[in-house]
Design a protein that fits this description.
single chain; T9SS type B sorting domain-containing protein; 877 residues; T9SS_type_B; mainly beta; five-stranded antiparallel beta sheet; 67 strands; Ig-like_fold; 4 helices
Length: 877
C-alpha cells in the first residue's frame, strides 16, 4: 500500500534556517493559525485588523517573534513594540509586508512594507520602505531601531522574498509601472541600489496597483498579477524567469485571453505548479464567480494548461479573488471574507488528482478577509519525495537529486520506535509506531562541507477498513440485454466502506493502475467492456493511505420496464407554462406495485440509470408544453432491479360546491354536475352530467377523470310558491318607493322583482324613485310567479298655464284611482287660491280672474282612505 507521491519541503537552510519561521500566522480580523504541530490550529490572541496583507515571523523552533499589518508591529506578547507605530505600510495593501532576518546577525530583522493604491486619491504615497527590528532589545521582545527607510517614492502593493542558499543572502523584489526592483539583503543589511529589470508590463494607473508577486520556492520563477479595475475590469497575469545570482527578471510570459481579474498567487512546494485566484469577468463589465486556477509549469504552453481547482459563488460582487499562501504543512490556503479558510491539500499533484476543500480550516470564530501573511518563499522549497503513509507501511524519503550530497542524518520524530527512529542512509526509510502527525528532522551535509536542516510533517493513518471485493449490480436500459450498461461507480462506495462516509475512492481498469494512481476512469457513466468485468477502486481518506478494492460490474437482465403506466395526479396546479404536482403521489402508487423495495424518482432516464439528482418527494414543476413524465428506479438490497417511466395526467382539485340544493319546479328539478370530466355516476345509477329529478331527496354524484374522482351531494327540495305578505307603497312624495315583503320562509336570495311586467328584474325587493303610475308587479323565484297590478299616486312638480295645450292645468295624477279626493292650493302667504275635488278641473293658475305670478305654491291633499299629504309645486310662465 502506497500513498500519493508528495514532495518533502526544505525548511532549514544553512545553520539556523528552518521552515518553522513560518509556523505562526496572523491575518484578517484578529485571526491566526499555529502550524507547529503540523496541522493548523486557531490562534485567537492576535490584535491586527487587516483588510488584506500582513506578515509574521517566528524563530527556528516555531516560537512567535512579532507580526505586523504594515502599520503597527506587535511583539510575541501582543504588545506594540517600542517605536513600532507609524510604519509606512497599509493593511489595505495586497502584500502589506514581508519579514526576514539578517543572514549573519540573526538578532536583526528587516520589515519591508508596500504602498497602498487608495493613497493615490490623496496625491500622497507611502512608497516602498523597510524598518529594522533588533530582537536583543526590550528583554528579547524586540525594538524598532530604524523606521521607514525609503527605497522607492512610490510602488505597487506587491512584494516577495527569496534566499540565495549558496551565497547566504536574500532578494526582496517589488514592481512599479514597467519595471522590477530587486534589493539584496546580506550581512551588511539592505542594499539601497536595486537591480532594475525594465521588461514590463506597463501599469500606469495607480488604481490598478493591487495584486500579488510571488517567487517560486526554488527561486527560479516569479509570478505577478495585477487586478485591473480601471477603466474596465481586465486580466493581467505574468510569469518570469528569475536569476537568483544576479537578481535579474527575464523571459516574460503573459496569460492571454484570461477573462479574470487576477489577485492572489502561490506556487506549489516543488515549484512545478502555479495557482492564481481571480474573479470571472462577464459581459457588460460585470463580475462572476471567484475561481482558483492551476497552471502546469512543465507544460509546453503554461497558461493553456489552466484547470479550475476551486470555484466560489460571488453574490457580494467582490473584485478581489483572495490571497493564497502555502503553509509549512505543504498545503495552500485561500482567504476570502469568512470564518474559515479554504485549502488545496496536495498542490504538487496534477489537476486530476487535486484534493481541495472550501472553508475547511476553522478560525475559532475569527474572520478572515482578503489577505494572508507573506513569508520568504524559500521556507517552502521541496527537495524530497515521501511515499507510503499507512500504519505498518515502510515510509520512504527520497532526495530528488543526490548529487553533491555527502551525508544525510534522519530523526523521524518517533521515539517509540527505538533505534530505528534514526538513520544515516541517503534514502530514509521508517515504519512508524502509531497513527498521527510526526515531525521529521533531516540534516544534509554537502560535498563542500555545508549543512542544511529540514523539517517535515507526515500524517500516518490507519489502513482503511473496507471489504476487499463487492458486486455493483446495474440495470440495463439500452434495449439490448447483452450484459453491458453504464455505471455510476460512486454507488459502490457504500457497498465496501463499512459505514465510513469519510472514505473516498478513485477507479481504475487495472489493479496496477490503481496502485500507481494512473489512468483514472470517469466514475459517472462508465460503461463496462465485458460481462461481469472487474474494476479496481483506490480507497482512501486523505489520499495518502489507500487500499485497493475489487468491484465486479454486473448488468441486471430484463430490467428495462419502459413506459410502465399512466398515473393521475388529482391535486395538481396548472398554469399557462407549468404543471405542478406533488410527486409523492407517484411514489405512493409505485409502492403498491413494488412493495418492500426502495423506490427513487428522477427527471431523466440517464439520471435514473446513474442514480443522479434524486428528486425529493415534494412538488415538482413540469413544462406545460410536454406530457409530464417521471423516471423511477427500483432497488432491492441496494442493487438496481428495474428502471421505467410513468406518464402523468395532472389535474387540479376542482373549485365546486361540495353540497348544493335544487327545487322542484312544476314537478321537475334539473341538476348539472361540474363539467369537463370523463365519467359521471349518480346514486340513482344515472351516468349523465345533466339529470332530472321529480322526487325530493338527497342524491350523490361521483365525477371522475382517470383515477381522480370527486363527489358532490345535491338536496332536492319541494317546489316553493311565492307568498307576498305585503306591498308597501310610499307615494305622493319626491321619492316614491315600492317595497314587497315576502313570507318568512321565502328564499329571498333566489327571488327577483319587476315593475314592468317581467321585462326587467332586480334582486332588491325595494324600488325607489318610482314615478306616479300603474305598474305590473312580478315576483319570480326561479320557478313560481306572483303577479299584481299596483298604483303609485302623485302630483306634478310644476305646470305652465300658457294655453299651449301642455301642462296648462295642475291636478293630481291618476286621479281616477283615488275617488272622493279633495285638494286645496295656497300661495306662500297662505291665501287659498282654489279648492277642487273628484270630477272637477284642477287649478289653471288664476285667482280672482287674474293670472298668478310664477312662484312656488302649496297643496293639501285629502284621500278617501283618510290619508292626507302636503307638498308644493312650481308655477312657471
Amino acid at each position: 500500500m502506497k500513498g500519493f507521491v508528495i514532495l518533502f519541503f526544505l525548511l532549514v537552510v544553512t545553520k539556523g534556517f528552518a521552515q518553522k519561521e513560518a509556523a505562526n500566522w496572523y491575518f484578517g480580523k484578529s485571526a491566526g493559525l499555529d502550524f507547529n504541530s503540523g496541522q493548523p490550529l486557531p490562534l485567537i490572541d492576535g490584535l491586527l485588523n487587516s483588510v488584506e496583507g500582513s506578515a509574521a515571523i517566528s524563530d527556528v523552533d516555531g516560537n512567535l517573534l512579532f507580526y505586523t499589518d504594515g502599520i503597527t508591529i506587535w511583539n510575541r506578547n501582543h504588545d506594540i513594540m517600542p517605536n513600532g507605530e507609524g510604519i509606512k505600510g497599509s493593511s489595505s495593501s495586497t502584500q502589506a509586508a514581508v519579514i526576514m532576518p539578517n543572514p549573519v546577525q540573526t538578532n536583526l530583522y528587516y520589515v519591508f512594507t508596500t504602498d497602498d493604491v487608495l493613497l493615490g486619491d490623496t496625491g500622497e504615497f507611502n512608497g516602498f520602505n523597510f524598518s529594522v527590528v533588533d530582537m536583543d532589545l526590550d528583554n528579547g521582545l524586540g525594538d524598532v531601531v530604524e523606521k521607514n527607510n525609503e527605497l522607492l517614492v512610490q510602488s505597487s502593493e506587491k512584494v516577495s522574498a527569496i534566499k540565495n542558499e549558496r551565497e547566504n543572502y536574500y532578494w526582496v523584489i517589488t514592481h512599479f509601472t514597467d519595471r522590477f526592483y530587486a534589493f539584496r539583503v546580506d550581512e551588511n543589511g539592505v542594499n539601497n541600489n536595486p537591480v532594475v529589470s525594465a521588461i514590463g508590463p506597463s501599469i500606469n494607473n495607480y488604481r490598478n496597483g493591487r495584486g500579488a508577486l510571488k517567487f517560486s520556492p526554488n527561486g527560479n520563477k516569479l509570478a505577478m498579477s495585477y487586478s485591473i479595475t480601471t477603466p474596465d475590469y481586465a486580466s493581467s497575469l505574468f510569469l518570469f524567469d528569475f536569476d537568483i545570482e544576479t537578481g535579474i527578471v527575464s523571459n516574460p510570459i503573459e496569460a492571454l485571453n484570461q477573462e479574470k481579474v487576477y489577485y492572489g498567487l502561490e506556487f506549489s512546494s516543488n515549484s512545478k505548479k502555479l495557482y492564481a485566484s481571480g474573479v470571472n469577468i462577464l459581459r457588460g463589465n460585470m463580475l462572476g464567480a471567484i475561481n482558483i486556477s492551476q497552471f502546469d509549469l512543465e507544460a509546453p504552453d503554461i497558461f493553456s494548461s489552466e484547470k479550475i481547482i476551486l470555484s466560489f459563488e460571488n453574490e457580494a460582487g467582490f473584485f478581489l479573488g483572495g490571497s493564497m499562501q502555502i503553509g509549512i504543512d505543504k498545503r495552500i490556503y485561500h482567504a476570502i471574507p469568512s470564518l474559515q479558510l479554504s485549502v488545496i491539500k496536495n498542490p504538487n499533484a496534477d489537476s486530476q488528482f487535486i484534493e481541495s476543500s472550501k472553508f475547511e480550516t476553522e478560525l475559532s470564530n475569527r474572520e478572515a478577509s482578503f489577505g494572508l501573511p507573506t513569508f520568504v518563499q524559500s521556507y517552502f522549497e521541496t527537495i524530497f519525495e515521501i511515499e507510503n503513509f499507512c500504519l505498518s507501511d515502510n515510509t520512504t524519503f527520497t532526495p530528488e537529486d543526490i548529487s553533491g550530497i555527502a551525508a544525510i542524518s534522519w530523526d523521524f520524530g518517533d521515539p517509540n520506535s527505538g533505534a530505528s527512529n534514526y538513520s544515516n542512509d541517503l534514502v530514509g526509510e521508517h515504519i512508524f509506531s502509531n497513527i498521527g502527525y510526526f515531525t521529521i528532522t533531516v540534516e544534509v551535509t554537502y560535498d563542500n562541507g555545508a549543512t542544511r536542516q529540514f523539517i517535515e510533517y507526515v500524517n500516518i493513518q490507519e489502513i482503511p477498513d473496507v471489504l476487499g471485493r463487492v458486486s455493483l449490480v446495474q440495470c440495463d436500459i439500452d434495449g439490448v440485454d447483452d450484459g453491458l450498461t453504464s455505471f455510476n461507480l460512486l454507488e459502490s462506495i457504500p457497498l465496501f466502506n463499512n459505514g465510513n462516509d469519510e472514505l473516498k475512492a478513485l477507479f481504475f481498469e487495472t489493479e496496477e493502475n490503481a496502485n500507481l494512481n494512473e489512468n483514472i476512469i470517469n466514475a459517472v457513466g462508465y460503461r463496462n467492456s465485458s460481462i461481469n468485468q472487474t474494476i479496481f477502486a483506490r480507497v482512501f481518506k486523505d489520499s495518502e493511505c489507500f487500499v485497493v478494492v475489487e468491484i465486479d460490474l454486473i448488468a441486471q437482465p430484463m430490467s428495462d420496464l419502459g413506459l410502465y403506466d399512466t398515473f393521475y395526479i388529482c391535486d395538481g396546479r396548472l398554469t399557462q407554462n407549468t404543471s405542478i404536482a406533488d410527486i409523492s403521489n407517484v411514489f405512493d402508487q409505485l409502492s403498491n406495485d413494488f412493495a418492500n423495495s426502495d423506490i427513487l424518482l428522477f427527471e431523466s432516464a440517464n439520471d435514473a440509470l446513474l442514480k443522479l439528482n434524486v428528486l425529493p418527494l415534494s412538488e415538482f414543476s413540469f413544462d406545460a408544453l410536454f406530457t409530464p413524465e417521471l423516471y423511477f428506479r427500483i432497488e432491492e438490497d441496494t442493487n438496481c432491479a428495474f428502471i421505467g417511466s410513468v406518464q402523468l395526467v395532472i389535474t387540479e382539485t376542482p373549485d365546486y360546491e361540495i353540497s348544493k340544493t335544487a327545487y322542484l319546479c312544476e314537478g321537475v328539478a334539473e341538476v348539472i354536475a361540474p363539467e369537463g370530466y370523463e365519467s359521471y355516476l349518480w346514486s340513482t345509477g344515472l351516468m349523465n352530467q345533466k339529470v332530472q329529478f321529480d322526487t325530493p331527496g338527497i342524491y350523490d354524484v361521483l365525477f371522475s377523470t382517470g383515477t381522480c374522482s370527486y363527489a358532490q351531494t345535491v338536496e332536492i327540495l319541494p317546489e316553493i310558491g311565492i307568498v307576498v305578505e305585503a306591498i308597501s307603497i310610499q307615494d305622493f312624495s319626491r321619492n316614491n318607493q315600492v317595497q314587497i315583503q315576502l313570507g318568512i320562509n321565502e328564499i329571498v336570495e333566489n327571488t327577483t322583482f319587476s315593475l314592468d311586467g317581467g321585462q326587467s328584474f332586480q334582486n332588491d325587493n325595494t324600488f325607489n324613485a318610482v314615478l306616479p303610475g300603474v305598474y305590473d308587479l312580478v315576483v319570480y323565484n326561479g320557478c313560481s310567479v306572483y303577479e299584481e297590478e299596483i298604483i303609485v299616486g302623485g302630483t306634478p312638480s310644476f305646470f305652465t298655464p300658457n294655453n299651449d295645450g301642455v301642462n296648462d292645468v295642475w291636478t293630481m295624477a291618476n286621479s281616477n284611482f283615488f275617488p272622493d279626493y279633495k285638494i286645496s292650493i295656497f300661495d306662500r302667504y297662505g291665501t287659498l287660491m282654489k279648492s277642487f275635488q273628484e270630477g272637477q278641473i284642477g287649478w289653471d293658475g288664476r285667482y280672482q280672474n287674474k293670472n298668478m305670478p310664477a312662484d312656488d305654491y302649496w297643496y293639501y291633499l285629502e284621500l278617501q282612505d283618510g290619508r292626507s299629504f302636503k307638498g308644493f309645486f312650481a308655477l312657471k310662465r
